Amino acid sequence: MCAKNTYYITTPIYYPSDKLHIGHAYTTTIADCFARFNRLRGKDVYFLTGSDEHGQKIQRIAEEKGVHPKEYVDNIVHSFQALWQRLNISYDGFIRTTDEEHMQLVQKVFQILYDKGDIYKSKYEGLYCTPCESFWLERQAKDGKCPDCGRSVERVEEENYFFRLSKYAQPLLDYYKEHPDFIQPVSRLHEMENFIKSGLEDLCVSRTAVTWGIPVPFNEKHSIYVWFDAVVNYLSALGYLTEEDDLYQKYWPADLHLVGKEIMRFHAIIWPAMLLALDLPLPKTVFGHGWLVFDGEKMSKSKGNVIDPNLLIDEFSADAIRFFLLREITFGSDGNFSRDALIRRINADLANDLGNLIHRTSSMYEKYFPNEIPQLGQEEEPEKEMAKNAKKAIEEYERLLDSFEPHNALEALWTLIRQANKYLDTTAPWTLAKNKDYPRLARVLYTVGEVLRIVSVALWPIMPTSADKIREQLQLGKVSSFEEAKVWNGWEADKRILKAKPLFPRIEVKEDDEEEKEEEAKATAQVETIKEEQIEFDDFLKVHLKVATILSAEKVEGSDKLLRLIADLGTEKRQIVAGIAKAYTPEELVGKQVAVVTNLKPRKIFGLESQAMILAAGDKNELAVLNPEKPVKAGTEIG
Ligand code: ME8
What we know:
This protein is 43% helix and 18% strand.
């Protein structure tokens, strides 16, 4: 029998209650890496992600905003899709729980389990956490707080439908024993076993207080519990129980449900119990990864410590973020997200190790072989050593990705990159060039190119854009199979590494005190901005200010505020209509020097054209015109 060649991988479907943060991007990026890696290995991959749109949480937010929940989620779901595009997420399917086919399947599943006697009606009295959309018993929620997120729970008393979860306690424990790969990592398996052993109660699977949900097919007063609705997405996306169920036939059971550790219970207990009740095969693996934490705390909107992945992509590129998430955090454990760590990784691993290797070698090709590349010299010991290193690195890389250790897989690849840098140092191509040993020199440069070719294959699932760019420099087309990484001397001998802009520019890090000063300046500037809008010096220069000598002044007929003045501006005379009649008599003004704005567009006031504006301080009755402290030539610029 040939092994199954399909690979079905899923992410959680995220709540469109708000925009996604870097924690969501973490799960999806890792799923994308596994999807791409398996595609490269010739698997027929189906990669599913989506949005979980029903439930009390969304209902409340939409109510607060005064919009229909569907209108509210539509906008946010588009932002999900835009983010995945920017992050280069290669999903095959995007399921929305408001899709018609999905809602129909959820109702069918509910009906089947009801007909089977696995769903029954009873009274629910207990606690509910709206942010997590989860039910809790009194004994589970200590001090009225949700055991998962620590927020306050609410008391709920409703006539509801229940799923006979308790009936599946033993079958689940048996299943875990028989399928040691089912729950990973193993620490999560122990958590799930303990949870079941502490007493598995039947699960409330409908709500009467929630209207934004899929109606129970035989009792419209109830909406189906959002988690019952949500997990069914993994089947509805494949067309299960419809006429077009090719995807289901081909891909079910899933190979990997990738989820965060806080929703393990739903994926390793409730969902498998539902599948057992439906007599369907269970997914091969449910992997519960750890949390991205920020200063030791889980990121969440309510704590105000979330990081917007879009801003990080703007600043550092999608590939750098993807690399960091996969390389920095031990997959399965919690990991700290920090900007410093991100910059350190970019500078050390990407700019230094990988970027320099490419840059050094492409420069040497240009310098030593501007035209022809000579016949390569024979492989010697150092090249044989590099061949062994490459083989080992790729074997390790593949094994470690298969065992869900992307951080270690990348370390194996970077060991090879560092070895290649060292190889360049020890073979010293500059000395070979001095000694005019061109065949040997060509062999050395070729060997580095060969390592980079292999690296580009392995790197593609992690950093697809950068891998493609490296391949362009190597004059290669797109990678088509992981097997390409297992070949040695697969690069053509007459090719060279083309020079290009650095793939990973170094991020300049400011010294602490420099940074502090800058922050301080920013803060001061901000306070001033609050007081008044600031303009650029160039804006100030746009205003022409000059000293004018008033030659004549008279009242404007019909107005008790206005005076008509004739002012000398040196090279010209201008008529000015000024609202200063209450503060000055015409006689007082004649002969005075005043400051005027000369480049305002002329305005008609009381039928007279005013061709400049006098500057004055104070209010109407106590106006004081501004004049130079000592006489100056009429028309002198003020500045
Ligand atoms: O739970 N670190 O949706 P959700 C790592 N709709 N991963 C994180 C994270 C963090 N700080 N924050 C979120 C739901 N995640 C349900 C899922 S599935 C049938 C229904 C990731 O929007 C992680 O994968 O709250 C977590 O499980 C998921 O986002 C929760 O997303």
